[in-house]
Amino acid sequence: MSCNRRTFAKSILLSAGSAAFHAGRAADTPPNVLFITADQMRGDCIGTAGHPNVRTPHLDRMAREGMLFRNGFASGPVCVPTRKSCFSGQHPHEHGSLTNDDGDKLPWRGSMLEHFAKRGYRTGWVGKNHTFTGEALENLDYSDIRSREPFRAYNGYVPPHWHSAVYWPEEDCFPHVNTESAIRFIGQAGTDPFFLHVSYFDPHPPYMAPAKYVTRYDPSDLVLRPGIDPSALGNRLDQFAQAMGFQHLGREDLIETMRYYYAQVEWGVDQPVGRLLGALESRGLDGNTIVVVTADHGDFMGDYGMVRKGMFLYDSLLHVPLIWWAPGRIATGIRTDTLAQSSDLFPTLVELTGASHPETASGVSLADTLMQKTSAADREEIFTSAAYSELAPGVLPPDLAPRDKEASPRHTKVLGPTMVPVHRTKMVRSRQWKFILNETERPELYRLSATAPRERENLVDSPEHTVVRRDMERRLQAWWTW
Questions:
Q1: What is the pLDDT of residue 401?
Q2: Helix, strand, coil shares of the chain as percentages rounded to 5?
């Protein structure tokens, strides 16, 4: 990207001003953007959100000084669909990836990266990709992309809930390596604004963290949510749980897995975020940078006696962190119940930095909510689209691991086939209700509340909820018609 192009684009940006900011904010300081994504982090795993165990002092600080969306949701239950939604502003069935194994990676054209590059931003990407084509990434000013650490390799004897202490030196592990790379990019900041995406790998399984973090979580202190049988939700979830072998996952195993998961959140997400905020502050960039932290999807992590993920539209997998931090630019210390999702990030960042809603993005801008404008609309619902394939009967023998220790682990053999996009599924969710349609299963209707946020019992056949079901189904069918 040439200096002439960037200089010209910057002059347009400066002349446009930044009407999306608080009145009185200088229009001649175009803000930087630092967009941070965790991998497989539940939305309730933040201390300030009320989690009883996990330690997230830096994310808590961001929430105190910025805004926490308590109803932030991923656009899909697995990586690729949500990540493409973040950078395209579109729902999965619109951008063409309903599972990880569906559709092409995102092109440069029409994406959030291209948008900011055209406006004169210096663009950078650090960490996991799983979003863009290699050709698209060649347009970046800075890229430092890597796959997962070799020490996380699986074999046939590894159960789905595998956890272990990290045995590499911390300075060689990717939370540190990716953060160092991001800080180098920030340190190169000049007069041009920058857009930097930092994509961390944690707390994605295998659940691994240094022992010094794991020991901070006393097993006797961990809080287990009340058990709910997967069959209470539907046959597909029940069959998946059995095929994964979760019936063998005892209370002690689950608690131990939770310890490592929470340690991963602290070590692999919260501590790096703290270092990035410190880098902005040490360079005097904190007053001119918008920081957003989210995740691509969640993790069952104890819900229904399960861990990991699957092609299901339940809150365990869809509820993700969403924290905005921009000193002097957005409201501070606010915890909002406004419904938000991944496809909203593109239009929100565009409007917060002074441009108009992207024409190709169907997501909703959250800018008015972030600035606590009285005109901010109270969103009624969000939608999600995905796909799945049903498991064949007897997909695996009843033992936990294949007999060949070099074979793929059980969870790979189960999850992989369900990623084939044969059947479609979609969901509409309000604050009180969730309605799901699956092509091969009966519909699902759940009542949700702040005190009981998980799906507990399918009420779709309850006569007293017929009106709710019809209303939710009408909205869902109008959104995406099969």
A1: 53
A2: 35, 15, 45
Report pLDDT digits (tens) over 167-189: 999 999 999 999 999 999 999 98
Residue 134 domain-assigned? yes
Transcribe 4-15 into DSSP letters. Answer: HHHHHHHHHHHH
Average pLDDT of the chain, as a whole number = 91
Domain membership flag for residue 474: no
- What does pTM read for this prediction? 0.93
SS3 86: helix
- Is 481 domain-assigned? no
Is 201 strand, coil or helix? coil
Dihedral (CA of 113, 114, 118, 124) sign: positive
- How many domains is the chain built from? 1
Length of the chain: 482
Residue 110: helix, strand or coil by DSSP? coil
H-run or E-run covering 208: strand 207-209
Query: 459 in a domain, yes or no?
Result: no
Domain of 262, in residue numbers = 3-423
- Helix-helix angle 174-187:271-282, to 10 degrees: 20
User: Is pLDDT of 403 > 80?
Assistant: no
**What is the identity of the amino acid at 168?**
W
CATH number at residue 11: 3.40.720.10
As a whole number of angstroms, the distance between CA 217 and CA 259 comes to 6
Residue 10 has pLDDT above 50, yes or no: no
Q: pLDDT (tens digit, 9 = 90+) per residue, 64-113?
A: 999 999 999 999 999 999 999 999 999 999 999 999 999 999 999 999 99
317 DSSP 8-state letter: H
